[in-house]
Batch of 4 targets.
Target 1
Amino acid sequence: MRNTPVQLHVITRIVAFIILAFSVFLFFAGHNNPGGGFIGGLMTASALILLYLSFDLKTIKRVIPFNYSKVIASGLLLAIVTGIIGMFFGFPYLKQFFDYFQVPILGEIELTTALPFDLGIYLVVVGFTLLVILTIAEDDS
Amino acid sequence: MSTLHFVALIPFIAAIFIPLVYHKFRHIHTGWFILPIPLVLFVYLISYLPTSDAPMATVKNSVPWVPSLDIHYTVFLDGLSLLFALLITGIGTLVVLYSIYYIANKKDEPLNNFYVYLLMFMGAMLGVVLSDNLIVIYVFWEVTSLSSSLLIGYWFHKEKSRYGAQKSLLITVTGGFAMLSGFTLLYVMTGTFSISEIIALGDVIVASPLFIPAMILILLGAFTKSAQFPFHIWLPDAMEAPTPVSAYLHSATMVKAGIYLVARLTPVFGGQAEWFWIITSFGLFTLLWGSISAVRQKDLKGILAFSTVSQLGLIMSLLGLGSAAFHYDVVDGQSVYTVAILAAVFHLVNHATFKGSLFMIVGIIDHETGTRDIRKLGGLMSIMPITFTISLIGIASMAGLPPFNGFLSKEMFFTGALNSTTIDVFNVQTLGFIFPIVAWVASVFTFVYCMIMLFRTFTGKHQPEKLEKEAHEAPMGLLISPIVLGSLVVVFGFFPNLLAYTIINPAMQAILPGLLEPGEQFYVNIYHWHGLNPELFMTMGVIFFGAFIFLNARKWQETAFYLKERDPLNTIYDNGLVGLIKGSTAVNDVQMTGRLRDYFSFMFVFLILIMGYMLWKTNAIAIDLANTAHISPYMYLISLSLVIATLAVPFVAKRISAIILVGVIGFLIALLFAVFRAPDLALTQLLVETVIVVLFLLVFYHLPELKKESFKPAFRISNFLISIGVGLVVTLTALSAHAFSHENPISPISDYFVENAYALAGGQNIVNVILVDFRGLDTLLEVLVLGIVGLGVVVLIKYKATKGEDI
């Protein structure tokens, strides 16, 4: 226990979740304010990287048991499938739709098919960044 | 979408479910599930046959695919396409039935692969013959090449299968690509991809200077596919495929795609001297070359392969001879040249029947004895009586003996060749006398290899010690398909006029449109006895000389001619392939040095050259600083720090300092973005920098100590020049773009995005709206690249090649 950087761990635990929360905000803000899938994804990735850096790989792998190749695959799939849906109604591939809805508590909100598409981008970016960094980190030869 | 559209698509749709069915019903042979598909399609297509003497109605039905590029999935059914579609589905049914007994349902037999490829082929082939749009034809055409190659390589553990698969793919796809260029030229000339519209614009094409290039390019496609000399070398090697495939693709259907294309485009190009000469001479030479090569083969399938090459040449030459008909008036639906087309269509059907049955018979012999080598076979007549009977019929038909259908079409072929001597256009008088002679000589050799096939296999001494299995008659399931085809040989031989007005005449009308008055018909009457005419004497000569050569086999079978069975043209292909690999390795070695430095210089030199050239060529260098915006002091400050940091990088001694400096540059750029009010870019840049710093930390451990490298002065100077050049060119381009901005007639696309982002996509952040909506496809492809790169990194690191290992 002598070499455990306690301060780092404590701060990381708090900061990582602040970054994570902010990245989710950025992701949703994307349509009207700076942000979006790409930026949100990068920020989520940096929060996770921070966790990996301050704790060790094994601990975090147990906490976040994601296979990042699959995260990339599901992101791509989501983006592609969102594009296809419009085709069933005779629209070109990747045509996006949006409309405004009245929702209790939140008031008027805008829902758009660009969001799941952007979520796909988000997943690919998160998956890619972590896959590359973890693969290189695990390589000790 | 009409039902006809689905004729070509059903096999593809069915193919999706094959793996499922294969794994679900493992104990039932997958072939049984496939069998109904071609059968149902065949029965459906039969309903389009003309019933009475009325001419066949053509069907045309269009569904837009890419309307902006004039690409429509248009189905077009006339006599010619119906003939081919019936062949594809009819022979397809028999082949699937045959394959069920031929390829046993063993544990490790990937039947699902086999039937998926076969269905892919069937659908693609139907697509080729039923489409009216050249681009759609091209797409299906390449799918047939691909599936053919996959089927040849079905037993991919065999070296020869892989060789044959690669060879067929390389040759046919090269031809296909040439054909695509030809189609594009046709489009340039006529402005349409629709064949029926192109035919109507025949005059425009003939007058165009692009006529000859387009014709040659398209013929390259047709010749490679239909194995015409000198591209025929892939067909004998394709015999490594399972025999049902050889019977289906490599004799009855796919290799006839080239013939289909030539027949289909005859109304466009026919009547031109070049078309006539190229097709007739290549066809006749292929006929001769194929028949002579077939005599040298010892493998039964090899004989059949070269025989197919030669018969394809025969049909091709007939189409060439028949194209002369466009120069003469057709009287009462008959002219001396339409006979050639009649013979071509009739022989096409006959060849499919007798060659299909012969391939299946050879498959049976292989299956029941374990060999196809004629030196090991012999005396099978009494052991396999049914097989022998069908072979006798098929071989007699192939040799052109009465009363079988091969005799009828062979006689017509002689008529066509003899008629060619009377053609008085295209300067045929000078060389025309050669045509009947070549045709006759080739027929003699055809007769010889037919005799070899029959007598070496079925007569002589039975040599059980040389066979891998004990020979016995094949099971009934294997025999059904060849029996059906063999019976057709006999039926068409005795009653050829069954086909006359049902299928041959409509097909002729499709190949030779515009030659008849409305309501007229081509005169088709096929009969055995023509009187003692030259054709009959030619046939008698063939039998006499052929028998003579065969009986003296002992003498010539010891010559080098017989012992070397490999086609000499293969050397060119093999050496070419080796040369291609050597050449690309050499180029690769120069280009891919493995140093990032070199790649950067390549890219930058290219950038300097192309942009510098364009700036100089269009005289576009202009510097006008009149309308520049105000630059605030802190922008100067950031830029200055940026320059200093960049200049410092090369002079730093420690790697860690270099990394920090590069990080400083990145963060300064992010700051610049923020100053220029691009928060999205600034955010992205900041995050990317952060992640990169982590990456650097990770790899830092692996990197060696930074050493002062000593370089030659030339290397330093060239690198210095490149860096100065890039800076100069980019700066000049930016300044010139600014100077000319008020003269630019094109309004920037960003205006459109600014105006429409909220209205059309409901978003106020233009950057994001562009990313996810306006240019969504770009983003999708970018993340796709990202995914591929990620997998690449994993593969590179986790599956590292050990030293000296070749990838």
Note: Chain B has a mean pLDDT of 85.
Target 2
Amino acid sequence: METSLQAPVIPSPAVRDTVGIRKRIRRSFRQIRTESVFKQTLVIAGLILVILVLGILLTLITQSLPSIRLLGLKFIWGSTWNPVKNVYGAFPFLLGTLLTSFLALLICIPFSIAIAVFLGEYYPSGWFADVLKNAVELIAAVPSVIYGFWGLAVLVPMVRSLEARLGIDQPLGVGIFSASLILSVMIIPYAASLGRSMIQMVPEHLKEAAYGLGATRWEVIRHVVLPYTRSGLFAGILLSLGRALGETMAVTMVIGNSSILPKSIFAPGNTMASVIANEFTEADKTVYLSALIELGLALFLVTVIINIIGKKIIDRFTNE
Amino acid sequence: MNDPMRTDHIRYRIGKNNGFRILTFVLAFACMIPLVAILFFIIKAGITRINFHFLVNIARPVGEKGGGIANALLGSVIIVALASLIAIPIGILGGVYLSENPKGRLAYWCRLSVDILQGIPSIVIGIIAYFWLVKPLGGFSAFSGSVALAIMMLPVIVRSTEETLKMLPPSLKEAAFALGMPFHRVIFKVILPVGISGILSGVMLSIARITGETAPLLFTAFGNPYLSADVTAPMQSLPLLIFNYATSPYNDWHDLAWGASLILLVWVLFLNVFTKLIAAKWKVQL
């Protein structure tokens, strides 16, 4: 600060006229003022981010208050959702969300761990790895509405014929199983890329020691790499779960949108996100709207908690 | 060495090793099947619909052949451009703040907020934009959709800016300060130009991400069957059109949705590949 104040004051022999000096001093002061304004702008930008999150939380809470007050715990355990009769039990949606997400995780785990091991251990570089890496990134880039459309046109008929072969009396095709399949494809990239970066962090000397003892590659992976990266892989799967819980469009398009408690994994259902997407603009009563927002609040809280825990585990893992 | 039990065991271990290697390869490459299937199917179903007529007309009523998606194309461009206009300055400034003040209480909360923002389901952002803008302003509008998308862009831009600036050598900044440059000029004339490639990659990735977002637009931009450039009125966008037409029972509308899907897919993949080329050229770590 002081240097920029003094610099123009030093009278060089060339600059004798006081007008020029004054001009320079004024310019310096202007720059100093701009500097402090800019620093404040930066702080404001940081504050905006914090206020945004607080505002979101606050809005969700205040808007869902009518439903929280009126329905209380019945909201979670009630298994009937009938806006016409003013009955709001969100249990079918909770179940639908949990079923689709965990089924998707179950399907996705072997594939994403295989990709992580392939890219982290077998082929960390080379064109072979590049093809796979880019393909996985493209899977993440495809918009969710396109997954939904493709699922509706291609996957649903396939699931329907599978259901018919299994002898289910009403083979619809749409339902929890189709939604889980689509979801699992969508979350593979997240679990795989996190897993890959974790596997690449395994210290070389640990693996070499195991090879030195005569271990095969599989034994090194099984007894050194996987145990070492266990917490990291868990965090990756947790973060993918967070993704799966909040995914809306693809699920909405293939899950069948039925508010009845699903009887099997082939039955149509609804997730918390899909019921909001379907009914939000139709909600004509305060309690109805507020009940939907309470679902949004629950979704928000669950994903926030999952994300924070996942990030904490990864931070601890990378700092070790 | 000639102990038969022992060689058997070694053979078993080697066999197991090979077996699991093959299993890993098969599972890893099986993931490409859905991607290839989706690309193939969308291209096959969409390519025949796309022609000049498709790009400059709006949808015809059900039963009439032809029609296009001009309203959705225009709407997508306007909504995304407006969202970028809102999110890019705030995002870059936030990223600069985090890289300049890595420690401190506000920085801690700010970083946490970015993490949270990144994880919020897009449908929740739609609800928020509805209560912050649609309800007070008295109707669905493209502007509220842009704000919702801007909220989704922010964390990506903040993160990529912060990560890029953190990797710049501190000597760069110190040299600029030693010349007596004020802080804002150091940032604008030295730090940001040097880190522009990383920031640009982040911005383009976030644009690719929000162009395909549907859920935040359901209760904000809402959709509009007619051509409209008024940001205070409902506006159609590509993902909204795909969602509405794909779930409709009419074949003509399905055809429009396939064409729109292809355009959206090509645009999003193009942005991703382009970003990757930039990142590879300037050796950015994303």
Note: The longest strand of chain A covers residues 81-82.
Target 3
Amino acid sequence: MSTSITRRDFIKISALFSALGSAGKLFGEASSPSGTKAYSIPGKKRKIIPSSCWQCVSRDTIICRVEDGKLVKIEGNPKSIRNRGKICAKGQAGINQVYDPDRILYPMKRMGKRGEGKWKKITWDEALEELTGKLKKLKDKNSPEKFMFHYGRMKGSDSKIVKNFLTAYGTKTIGNHTSICEGGKWTAQELTWGKHYDVWDFENTNLIVNFGSNFLEAHTSHIQAAQRGTNALAKGVKMYTFDVRLSNTAAKATEWVPIKPGTDIAVMLAMANVIMKEKLYDKEFIDQWTNVSVRELKKHLKPFTPRWAEKVSGVPAKKIEKIAIEFGKAKPAILVTYRGAVAHYNGIQTERAKFMLEAICGYLNMKGGTNQAVGPKWKYPKTKGHTKKLKIVDGFPGTVAYPTHHVNHQVLKMIKDGSYGRPDIYMTYCYNPVFVTGECAENIAILKDESIIPYLVAVDVFMSETTALADLILPDVTYLERWTWDDMASFAMIPEFYLRQPVIKSLGEARQFQDVVCEIANRLGLDLGFDSTVDFIKKSCELSKIDFALLKKEGVWHDPSAKPKYHQHTKEIASADYESDRILFDEETGVYWDWKKSKAKSRDEAVNTGYSNMKNAYKGYIGQQIGDKVYKGFKPDKLNKSGLIEISSDFLKKKNFSAIPAWMEIPEHRNLNSQQLILTTYKVNVQTHSRTANNWWLTELYHNNPALLNSKTARKFGIKNGDSIKIISNVGEIVTQTKVIEGIHPGVIAISFHLGHWEYGEFASGKKASSGHKCVTDCDFVWWDTYGKNPNWIIPNKPDPIGGQQRWMDTVVKIQKV
Amino acid sequence: MDGYSSENPESLKASIYRFLQKLFIEPDEEFLNFLQQNSKELEDIGIEFNGSLNLENLQMEYTRLFLGPKGHMPPYESVFLEGRLWGNSASEIKNFIRGIGLELEKDINMPPDHISIEFEILEKIISSKDVEINGMYIDFLKRHVAWIFDFLTQLILKTELKFYQTSFAFSKVFLKEEMATSSRSI
């Protein structure tokens, strides 16, 4: 090899390279003449593009400032009635998602062994040719259900478009991720007051009692809840927070009440007991809107005294009494719950106990109380089709009574088992099961095994732990390059229609997956009724009578004459709406229902089977008879409950659970020995569960998650702050550091989610997804070198027996100093 | 010689920049044909081109080096210097392109500080008949060649293909020489 190039060499080279012809593929002539001084900065006029966030499920509205095609700043959209111009740190750091050099920008095909990391870039045409070839084969064999689609985050039109495609294709083997979030909370709500999602009217309440929700830091409606909750606290509204850990929400409370894990329900039952005893209940509300009487309640609650609850939960009886009386007298108060209370063996009954407590005080669906969520009701094109499914999304038969939000953390186990069928094509979309469900080691083993999962396709923005095992990677765009109409619940109690639109041109060859499914449908000859994401959104706008151009310009729209929707259940149904041939009256429940919306084949079948037993009868629910009137009531969803708040549930009775919420002991927590602790997990305010750990700014803020231990516990085990410990459960062990604090229950060890990635990029894992560039973790500004630990390695994938919620907070562990 | 003459070193350099521009974009059939037809001449300037090299090997190595999805080196100045896509260098390059009266084609989906775009800019500058633009050559080189140098050094260690290794080495030598002679000539 020559070490220098002489003029002579140039001549040779010139002759050689001139064969390449002209380069000029990259440039066209500019419309303006040359002459501007190079490097001069043109007028830095920033374009403002409204859109919506998608760092987490809150999906707040945003405005993006774009300078010469480059996104430079994200803020909250001040025109929004939901997040009212505010967004969180995660939202502001969104710039780092879109410009992350570790993003996947090209379709990739696996070349080496699964997980080995050898890839070939292929064209979209090649990728879709391969995928549609396999899809077509399955469809031709009349086995479309062997295509399993498993999604993590998919909402609004993103979800509708993909589900339309799956319907047209013919598969209903669709997995979601709700059981690792708060599925149990939703099932409990469906069993109790019907349609799920409770919105707390913080700004009009007089008292907040919080069980296990860190809503000032992390919540499905984070900024909506946090800013309204903060306003309440600033006004002097008291808040009691029951939590095993002094979260920042607990720290902001009037009082943090430490509680033994999984015993929240005991305190709730005792509070209800006190309220009944002290006659602080709302008899009228109980009589009219629930299916129990005061007498029944008193009888049922009698054994659950504060003294009893003290023994179970460790919360002093006097404290329970005091808070119960304040709650009963507050008129109104709100009771907040989330995973801390719900992600347990007894989580469903805990959530139902919350509703019982609020119902007996009459605090539901009212100003200052807990309200049924309102959100925009988008109308959209619906694709018709006949579907089949593998029975692998609701857990092993007999293990979960009412898996209304599915049991996604059992999917891989069921595929491994094989008795219920296996998908030939397993596609993940914005979902990283390896990392986000328990038992990581087993997840990896299953997904690596080509005899169990023959073809794994990952639709992803980043190289997640699951995507690293894929056979084919389809690069999706980030939320800042995406079109979606969206529909999050509104804490303003007025529905807000809003849009996500690309704020920059998508990078590389990343394509919005919704456009990709349109193309796949086209290749398979399926008619979806729309041909692109934008087409779908425009058609949805037309159907919903929403001005698309206005939505593009403003990002949000709500009816200016709308009033907050309190007391939704008290709306009277006009007789014309329930007096028709299709509508039946069910004597047993008092429900009017449209039998044609159920699965009944004839009117006779519907009449004979009855509302409660007819499949999908809830879909035809019209209203609830109370006295001589018919009200909207508490409309059911997923289950054929009545329009009343079912404090007593026949559904549960049928499956041998207590009909009225009652104490349920967590089996693993019985007879704990002095060496055992209960592992709990939590979230912080600057990271999402798994998708932001490679976000530079966020990871600078939060990059280590030592196990939290109470100082008493640490002393007992001879552990000092910062010591390394081994944590052992019955599914594995991890080694991590400790942080010794006072603000945690002595029987608990806590590790946050978010961290401990071994893929996902350099900030997340310390391993470069992309490499070579100087200025990432070895750069001067990177002052941290920790990546945290994922607790999921040692958490078993276990569903609660009623709804199938992953029992995040029940794991019993031992610890050893390393 | 297709309009390039030994009497005009600027057009010789332009042709080298054209080669460099193509070296850093995804190899295609046309590029492979070029290599195959000129393997002997390539060897003369130190670029080792093994005739048995096929397009798939070339594309796989290109993917591994530049596209990922893992362990790659995204060929962008702002990734290399600032650790992110579309950093300050990208905006600077975008302004520069506009400043010399050009505009990126609309369907280019890569940020403007891609190494190939930088090489093409150098080619455009050096071929320009506009004296003012022509005079920007050394300035642009000074501003942007440093990262390319470091980038190439790492690439030489990283690549497993002799063709890329020797091509990157050639690129380095050429740029080094260019910096030296151009600085002297000012």
Note: Chain B touches chain A through 91 residues (CB under 8 Å).
Target 4
Amino acid sequence: MATLSPMSARPRPFRLEARAIDWRLVALLLAYPFAFKLAHMAASPWGGAHFFSLWYPAAGVRLALLWRIGARFTPVLIVEECLIQSLTGTILPGGPEYLNQLGGVARAPAAYGLMIALARFIERRSRSELAIAPMPFGLAAVLAPTLASFTAGFWEWQWPGVSSSLPTQPVATTIAAFLVGDLLGVLLIAPPLLWIGTRDEGTRRLMPIGRGRAIEAASVFAFGWLLAWGLARVEPQIAITPVLIGAIWAGLRCGRLGAWIAIILSAAIILPWSAPLSASATRFALHMGLAAMAIATYLAGSFAEAQIRAREDIARRDRILFQAERLKTLRAMSVAIIHEISQPLSTLAIETRHLFALSRDPQPDPAEMRESIELVDRKAALLADMVRRLRSFGGRAVDEPSPIIVGQMLRDCAGMVGGEARSLGCTIRLPPMDARLRVTGHEIELTQILLNLLRNAMLAAPGSTIEIGVESRADQVTIHVANPVPSPTPDYGGMGIGLLVARAIADAHGGTLTRDIAQGRARASLSLPRTEPSHD
Amino acid sequence: MTDPADPAIIHVVDDDPDLGRAVARLLGRHGYRTQAFDTPRAMLAAQADEPAHCLVTDVMMADMDGFAFAERMRAQDPAVAIIFMTAWPTTSSAVDSVRRYGGLDYLEKPIDEGRLLAAVAEGARWSRQRRGALARLAPLTPREREVLHCLAQGMSNKMVAAALSLSPKTIEDHRAAIVAKTGASSPAALIALVREASGTEG
């Protein structure tokens, strides 16, 4: 099944034992320490007295890489992070607290690896909604920073190393600050990185956004920021709440792309704003708000795309259902079809024998011969035409929507049920029709509806005249199929599965299918848009 | 198969005119005088002008179905043999075609030519016989027919007289008239004539 977000892309596992060296993996692993260090340094403006940073992009880089290449590379990342931190002097080899500091560096990637392994395990084994993308990634994105922050909190409490002032600070603050920083880093950095890195076309594909929609989402988002700007002067701690709503709206309307733009723009405003602030509470509130925005907006974007995909999925399944229904109709019509075929076949058999006899005649009559040959030719063409019609009707191929001449389609349909009509003693009356009258759609599916309506009418009233009517208006064409109903009127409460399918086809063409009974006649009416293709 | 000087007349009815004409031509090549019709109505009209010996008709037709057509045909001319052909054979209609509608055969399309020819030959012979018998019986008075009917059941003159409450002498007079009009002199010939006329003697 198609995946719903970049996080769901189950990467082909990288294999160390593979015969050829995976240079992509090697490059990623070699680049990682530098990317990590850069992201680590980018976090410093948001540091505090007793916490490292309220926005830690290095966590995002780490999570993205581990999610992509698999948790079993955790030890490699631990070694790399320890090396780069030692080499750049963040921790001092040989110093009195070196081992403790090494542990302080290693505990975060270890926690991340553990939680990613857990999330992947759930994705593989669980049958609950947690296993459906993008939930496993969401789990990892929240669980990994959580475990890392708690580990760090208790570690520092037990073996203070980073800052000597820490023991005097509440453990909870350390944990919360760590958590907010990592969460923000993960949510802002990892999804775009994974999207860039994915090779899965379905995952890469973003929802197409129309100009109107983009303007609408941008307006809502900008209005949110306008409100936030006003609020910031009075109540900075709740200032970004309106932006939260605006960003979620952008995600809902424009999918993941809208969500990312909203999140990145918000981060681009909030992070520089909070960096110079001295009030911890406001910084906390802003970063927490941004984290909440990132989670909610991202989910909204994924949700919007999932809905579109679900709709596409349903449309595809509908087509399969329509085809199954067509085959059912064909089976029901098979007796009539045999009749339709055996008729010309009888003529063919008689005429070929005749020709055979003539060929042995020393002086065959040329006129007689020509007559027979013409007849054979005509019957063969008729059979070929019938076979073509039936084949396309029963075939798997879904034709592209195309302009259809209504009159021609109705004549074809009446022809296809002709044999059955005869056996039921029904007459099908076709009105004279304007040849220019066209609709756009899937001809085979529309034929299916009409066959269904005609057959239902004939079965409901054997021996009667089935009237086909066509009504055209500026923007729509309505085809009526009417049959007399014996009184008292039988119960037509259920429309049968065939008519349910017919109705679904009509819907898919932007049309309607209705039924009414009046003055002793049951009438089904199929309305279709007159020229426009129906699929928007 | 048929006398070239006096060919049997076969009418073919099918609402597929090509098939009707093909069947008619096929029979024509085997020495019959044939004519094809698109609708039963057209054929019924023609039957009044020149009665056919045998009728080959489709069962499923838009205008009138083959069985209803056969009933009309029988009412109009009891001496015509009817052969049904259908592209939609079912057991029940096959049984009905013979038992209820007096069909001689029930042919599936595409048509088995040999079987069609055999059925038509049999039908033509049966029809000529019945038509001849009916013609011989035509001059009889109603009373003579009653007497003939009893004689054909194997009754003696005395038994017939008792059954019809007439004197044996009167019965003898009727019998002489019957023999004179039909030319069937022996009791066996009388029985055969009655059978032929009723269509039970093929």
Note: The mean pLDDT of chain A is 83.
